[in-house]
DNA sequence: CGTATTCTTGACAACTTTCAATGCGGGTGG
DNA sequence: CCACCCGCATTGAAAGTTGTCAAGAATACG
């Protein structure tokens, strides 16, 4: 909740309204599909601890992860207006979540226009991250993609207090990382070695350590503007 | 306006409120940057005629288009909650637009929760399209990406009455098409020839004709679920 | 009618995938 | 306690897809 607050200035009465609506917490194991594509929804999920991912499968078994959620993210708030998701939602690690029933969200959106805009902002921020991933997937080379995602995750985790300076836990496999980047696990492995040998960053054993942030950002052409870290006043 | 209505059931009073807020229409030439990344916004753009694109530039001159807008789309409604855009907005063709000042949108969101949710839905639909593009860019081969985008555009244009059955105007260059697909113009050219020679679709002279929709959809693994064409009841 | 884009094609290069094999480490059962 | 397994990481070699470069053809436009 503190984490959610950081991104969207919320008044005491608004926070109370939201808190009243939330159910849980609930715990989930890793690798569990939490929401299935197309299934009708009646609540949305706030991630408290762990990592979630949005992904889609192709018929030949390939998978593309389209977003990684960090603690404080409303993972499928868009499901509230969409009714169902176009993608699956899976736990990458063991997770703790809270649920906001859509009836409760409806009540909030009818009574708290400002809080509604804060929610709306949150889904728009997700969309902005999707766009940056499109740029990576479409135009950046493998090593640049990897560097960019590491920069993004470090920035986002720092905001919610889940990074210790230039190091943070990222307990996912190289294959999962590859599924974010539109690459194969084999190639990601090579690229991570390159980053390590260049002294830029080290991702091993479920932990990332960034040794040369400027270098990594330069390689990735990382510009955090799209993360809207200077949250708007509205 | 009729087109907007098709995607979001809007009551008479809501429609009137929106109409009262809209300014314009304004006309723009092709290839004009309408909104620049990072610039503070005080109105959002409703596309009435023509095609707009969201894009980002890289330092080496590469460009990635992250979204194509068709008539009826609110092109930068997300700018209302975000304050500024993370991308540029450009006209691909001559365009006619209307503008919704954010002061007006603020008034609407304070008075019409249901219309607010309709707006919110609209930005969530954009995000869904971003996700599908991530899948294309990350996992589909060049010819599949091209086929998928043609299917998507045909579906979306059909909804707003801008497609004539299996044919529709798409007055953009192969290079611009390539910028959507994360490919080079040269390769798009080859891929379009393949689609033509396979009897699937023909994109030439600013017009697309789909000769074998099932074949094209099969090649692309196109599933329109992500377009939320069965709009939700809320 | 001439000029500038855009389209088209070929040959070659670069990047990433595929296939295959080996190493590593943690958990489990004997 | 230790051997065995199994998933994950790592590496090499070969193949495939897409990009780059270059040139000529077609088309649009003034």
Give a description of the structure.
- The structure is a homodimer of 234-residue chains.
- With 234 residues, the first copy, chain A, is an alpha+beta fold.
- Chain A folds into 2 domains: 1-129, Sandwich (Jelly Rolls), CATH 2.60.120.10; 140-227, Arc Repressor Mutant, subunit A (Orthogonal Bundle).
- Chain A is built from 9 helices and 10 strands.
- In chain A, a hairpin with a 5-residue loop joins β4 and β5 (63-69).
- Chain A starts with a helix and ends in a 14-residue tail after the last helix.
- The interface between A and B is large, with 51 and 51 residues.
- Chain B binds a DNA duplex (30 and 30 nucleotides) through α8.
- Chains A, B: InterPro entries: cNMP-bd_dom, cNMP-bd_dom_sf, HTH_CRP, RmlC-like_jellyroll, WH-like_DNA-bd_sf, WH_DNA-bd_sf.
- Chains A, B: It holds the Pfam family HTH_Crp_2.
* Overall pLDDT level of chain A: 93
Shape of chain A: globular
Largest interface: A-B, 51 and 51 residues
Q: What's the quaternary structure here? A: homodimer
Can you say what the CATH homologous superfamily of the largest domain in chain A is? Jelly Rolls
SSE sequence of chain A, one letter per element: HHEEEEEHEEHHHEHHEEH
Arrangement of strands in the largest sheet of chain A: 2-6-4-5
Structural class of chain A: alpha+beta
Strand segment tally of chain A = 10
The gist of it:
The structure is a homodimer of 234-residue chains. The first copy, chain A, has 234 residues and is of the alpha+beta class. Chain A is built from nine helices and ten strands.
């Amino acid at each position: 909740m503190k984490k959610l607050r950081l991104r969207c200035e919320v008044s005491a009465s608004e926070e109370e309204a939201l808190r009243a609506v939330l159910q849980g917490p609930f715990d989930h194991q890793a690798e569990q599909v939490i929401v299935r594509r197309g299934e009708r929804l009646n609540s949305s999920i706030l991630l408290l601890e762990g990592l979630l991912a949005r992904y889609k499968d192709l018929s030949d078994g390939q998978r593309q992860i389209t977003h990684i959620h960090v603690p404080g993210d409303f993972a499928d708030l868009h499901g509230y207006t969409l009714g169902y998701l176009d993608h699956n939602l899976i736990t990458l690690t063991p997770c703790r979540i809270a649920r906001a029933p859509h009836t409760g969200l409806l009540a909030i959106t009818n009574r708290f226009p400002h809080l509604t805009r804060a929610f709306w902002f949150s889904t728009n921020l997700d969309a902005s991250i999707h766009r940056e991933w499109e740029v990576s997937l479409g135009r950046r080379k493998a090593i640049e993609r990897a560097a960019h995602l590491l920069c993004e995750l470090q920035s986002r985790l720092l905001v919610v207090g889940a990074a210790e300076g230039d190091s943070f836990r990222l307990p996912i496999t190289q294959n999962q990382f590859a599924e974010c980047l539109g690459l194969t696990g084999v190639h990601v492995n090579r690229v991570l070695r390159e980053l390590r040998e260049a002294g830029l960053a080290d991702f091993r054993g479920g932990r990332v350590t960034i040794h040369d942030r400027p270098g990594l950002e330069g390689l990735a052409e990382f510009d955090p503007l799209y993360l809207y870290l200077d949250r708007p006043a509205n």
